Amino acid sequence: MTHGDGDLDGLVRARIRALRVAQGWSLEELASRANVSQSTLSRIENGQRRLALDQLVTLARALDTSLDQLVETATDDVVSSPVIDGAHGLMRWPIKAEPGLTVVRQRMTEPPPANPARMRAHPGREWLVVLSGTAVLLLGNRRLRVETNQAAEFPTMLPHAIGAEGGPCEILGIFDRDARRSHQERSPAPDAAV
Question: Which of 24, 106, 135, 157 is the most buried (most CB within 10 A)?
Answer without folding.
Answer: 135
